[in-house]
Amino acid sequence: MTIEQVNRYANKTIEIIYCSSDGELTKRRVKVQGITKKQFFGYCYLRNQRRSFLVENVLAWQPTTNWY
């Protein structure tokens, strides 16, 4: 995943497989709300709060067809 790919989904929901800094793998639905050079921010439906995600830690992603 690149920042350019994330940027195309600003204000939309994507599904990601994410590896946290401690090695935990999670599948998440995230509504993308902001983007910097190395990370993006958004509402995480798994944690029910706004979170930040390092692009380099996203192992897989896809746009979702669900509306949130």
Kindly report the CATH topology: SH3 type barrels
User: Main sheet: which strands, in order across?
Assistant: 4-3-2-1-5
CATH class: Mainly Beta
- Give me the CATH architecture, please: Roll
Q: What's the alpha carbon Rg, rounded to whole Å?
A: 11 Å
Number of strands: 5
Query: What's the overall geometry?
Result: globular
Distance between the termini: 22 Å
Please give the share of residues in helix: under 10%
Which stretches of 5+ consecutive residues score pLDDT under 50? none
Q: Total number of helical segments?
A: 1
Coarse structural class: mainly beta
H and E order: HEEEEE
* Count of the domains: 1
Question: What characterizes the major β-sheet?
Answer: 5 strands, antiparallel
Task: Note down, in words, how this protein is organized.
The chain has 68 residues and is mostly beta strands. The chain has one domain (3-63): SH3 type barrels, CATH 2.30.30. The protein is 7% helix and 53% strand. It has one helix and five strands. The protein has one helix spanning 3-7, and strands at 13-19, 25-35, 39-44, 49-54, 58-63. The radius of gyration is 11 Å and the shape is globular.
Entry summary:
This protein is mainly beta and 68 residues long. It has 1 helix and 5 strands.
